């Protein structure tokens, strides 16, 4: 019997690893497809003679559609399994991705950009799929590894310019043009290959925690305030990440007078830690608790964004002998890039910590809750860039971009801290210094059997 049980556990671990590997690879490519217009937009603008506003809408509509369907995508994954959902998403996205290479008008490009954006909804499907296969004690790390697929935002930045330059003017197989048009064709092929691999490599008998459950029961947790609080956290750590990934190249070019290629590389120093440190954030949350990880995340984000929001200049004092300029201040390129790198590190940890909360508190509703949190976080990436532009117009200060993020982060931090303090002082005053589940405190409640779904199994901080 022990041998049989060990073999079963080993088989489940192998299946969970296959799901994690394939979902992460697929999500990385779909994330690259989702944000590919950040680089392709430059040669597209030249070919079609677009204004900056028209160009901005190509990326904006892709980000919008990649956020709108995250809630239903997560719920459907819970009901029918991530294997089917991922394969369908990959195959569906391949069609508009290929058609982008054949577009001959701005209107058609806008429609195709919107359809290509559907790839962004794979995030909530992957969160639900991996949660169903991963043991509770390793969910933070597993979801962090999956979420590291955000690094796909840098893929086009690295391969795009070389492909565009190296293939310009060429034609392949008689139908595929070189230049910027070859990039979406390559992505379309990769998406179809991954769709086949998902069906071949991952377990045929998938896990479906929401199968057979009424829709009304699935959406019931969305009425809880904490779900919307987690969503605001995710706007700060993910929505701001998406917004900055698109905004920083322009910021570097306009304020530090560097080339677009240099700006793209400097932006990558923000994207990589903000993506690849998600597993570290998940491991930290598994070991020391998601709440503690969020405190550190928001603390670092507030410090860095406040520093970055300080405008260059000096103070002018009117004295008897005339005006005097004192305390000249200016952030140079490399100090700026280093602080932005630190900001990316904090966001990478924070993204994992937010999603560590969800399977911990809503083990049966990861699809619905994770879908809503992911949807609102993604919409933050849609709304923040215009807010950056308006704040710059109103103040005349480019650094106001980071003051917007400081205010957002400060609001999240204050709401989180007020919730924790309120919970500890009203429900458990003896735990006033605890941030995580009070596992070391004596249990004075009567011994009562509990099922995994019983609220007594949920950590104390979940009730905040």
TrEMBL record:
<dbReference type="InterPro" id="IPR011701">
    <property type="entry name" value="MFS"/>
</dbReference>
<comment type="similarity">
    <text>Belongs to the major facilitator superfamily. Nitrate/nitrite porter (TC 2.A.1.8) family.</text>
</comment>
<dbReference type="GO" id="GO:0005886">
    <property type="term" value="C:plasma membrane"/>
</dbReference>
<keyword id="KW-0534">Nitrate assimilation</keyword>
<feature type="transmembrane region" description="Helical">
    <location>
        <begin position="55"/>
        <end position="73"/>
    </location>
</feature>
<keyword id="KW-1133">Transmembrane helix</keyword>
<feature type="transmembrane region" description="Helical">
    <location>
        <begin position="141"/>
        <end position="164"/>
    </location>
</feature>
<keyword id="KW-0812">Transmembrane</keyword>
<dbReference type="InterPro" id="IPR036259">
    <property type="entry name" value="MFS_trans_sf"/>
</dbReference>
<feature type="transmembrane region" description="Helical">
    <location>
        <begin position="402"/>
        <end position="421"/>
    </location>
</feature>
<dbReference type="GO" id="GO:0015112">
    <property type="term" value="F:nitrate transmembrane transporter activity"/>
</dbReference>
<dbReference type="InterPro" id="IPR044772">
    <property type="entry name" value="NO3_transporter"/>
</dbReference>
<feature type="transmembrane region" description="Helical">
    <location>
        <begin position="225"/>
        <end position="248"/>
    </location>
</feature>
<feature type="domain" description="Major facilitator superfamily (MFS) profile">
    <location>
        <begin position="18"/>
        <end position="428"/>
    </location>
</feature>
<feature type="compositionally biased region" description="Low complexity">
    <location>
        <begin position="442"/>
        <end position="455"/>
    </location>
</feature>
<feature type="transmembrane region" description="Helical">
    <location>
        <begin position="366"/>
        <end position="390"/>
    </location>
</feature>
<feature type="transmembrane region" description="Helical">
    <location>
        <begin position="20"/>
        <end position="43"/>
    </location>
</feature>
<dbReference type="GO" id="GO:0042128">
    <property type="term" value="P:nitrate assimilation"/>
</dbReference>
<protein>
    <submittedName>
        <fullName>Nitrate/nitrite transporter integral membrane protein</fullName>
    </submittedName>
</protein>
<dbReference type="InterPro" id="IPR020846">
    <property type="entry name" value="MFS_dom"/>
</dbReference>
<feature type="region of interest" description="Disordered">
    <location>
        <begin position="435"/>
        <end position="464"/>
    </location>
</feature>
<feature type="transmembrane region" description="Helical">
    <location>
        <begin position="85"/>
        <end position="101"/>
    </location>
</feature>
<feature type="transmembrane region" description="Helical">
    <location>
        <begin position="184"/>
        <end position="204"/>
    </location>
</feature>
<feature type="transmembrane region" description="Helical">
    <location>
        <begin position="260"/>
        <end position="281"/>
    </location>
</feature>
<feature type="transmembrane region" description="Helical">
    <location>
        <begin position="107"/>
        <end position="129"/>
    </location>
</feature>
<feature type="transmembrane region" description="Helical">
    <location>
        <begin position="333"/>
        <end position="354"/>
    </location>
</feature>
<keyword id="KW-0472">Membrane</keyword>
<feature type="transmembrane region" description="Helical">
    <location>
        <begin position="293"/>
        <end position="313"/>
    </location>
</feature>
<dbReference type="Pfam" id="PF07690">
    <property type="entry name" value="MFS_1"/>
</dbReference>
């Amino acid at each position: 019997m022990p041998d049989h049980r060990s073999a079963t556990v080993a088989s489940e671990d192998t299946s969970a690893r296959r799901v994690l590997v394939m979902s992460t690879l697929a999500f990385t490519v779909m994330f690259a497809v989702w944000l590919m217009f950040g680089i392709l937009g430059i040669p597209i603008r030249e070919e079609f003679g677009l204004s900056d506003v028209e160009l901005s809408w190509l990326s904006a509509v892709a980000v919008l559609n990649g956020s709108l369907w995250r809630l239903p995508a997560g719920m459907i994954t819970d009901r029918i399994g991530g294997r089917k959902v991922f394969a369908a998403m990959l195959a569906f996205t391949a069609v508009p991705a290929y058609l982008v290479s054949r577009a001959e008008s701005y209107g058609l490009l806008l429609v195709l950009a919107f359809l290509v954006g559907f790839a962004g909804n794979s995030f909530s499907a992957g969160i639900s799929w991996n949660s169903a296969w991963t043991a509770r004690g390793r969910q933070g790390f597993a979801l962090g590894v999956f979420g590291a697929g955000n690094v796909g935002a840098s893929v086009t930045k690295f391969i795009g310019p070389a492909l565009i330059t190296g293939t310009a003017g060429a034609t392949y197989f008689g139908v595929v043009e070189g230049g910027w048009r070859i990039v979406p064709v390559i992505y379309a092929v990769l998406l179809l290959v991954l769709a086949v691999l998902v069906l071949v490599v991952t377990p045929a008998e998938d896990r479906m925690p929401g199968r057979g459950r009424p829709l009304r029961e699935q959406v019931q947790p969305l009425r809880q305030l904490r779900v919307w609080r987690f969503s605001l956290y995710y706007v700060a750590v993910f929505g701001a990440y998406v917004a900055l990934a698109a905004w920083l190249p322009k910021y570097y070019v306009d304020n530090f007078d560097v080339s677009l290629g240099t700006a793209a590389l400097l932006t990558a120093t923000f994207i990589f830690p903000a993506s690849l440190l998600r597993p570290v954030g998940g491991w930290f949350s598994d070991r020391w608790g998601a709440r503690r990880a969020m405190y550190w995340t928001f603390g670092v984000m507030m410090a860095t964004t406040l520093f970055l929001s300080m405008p260059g200049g000096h103070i002018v004092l009117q004295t008897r002998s005339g005006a005097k300029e004192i305390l000249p201040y200016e952030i140079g390129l490399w100090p700026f890039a280093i602080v932005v790198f630190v900001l990316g590190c904090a966001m990478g940890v924070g993204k994992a910590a937010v999603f560590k909360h969800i399977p911990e508190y809503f083990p049966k509703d990861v699809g619905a809750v994770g879908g809503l949190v992911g949807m609102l976080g993604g919409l933050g990436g849609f709304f923040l860039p215009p807010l950056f532009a308006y704040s710059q117009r109103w103040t005349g200060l480019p650094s106001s971009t980071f003051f917007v993020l400081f205010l957002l982060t400060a609001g999240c931090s204050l709401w989180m801290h007020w919730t924790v303090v309120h919970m500890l002082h009203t429900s458990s005053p003896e735990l006033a210094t605890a941030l995580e589940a009070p596992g070391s405190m004596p249990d004075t409640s009567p011994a009562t059997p509990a099922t995994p779904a019983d609220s007594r199994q949920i950590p104390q901080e979940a009730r905040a």
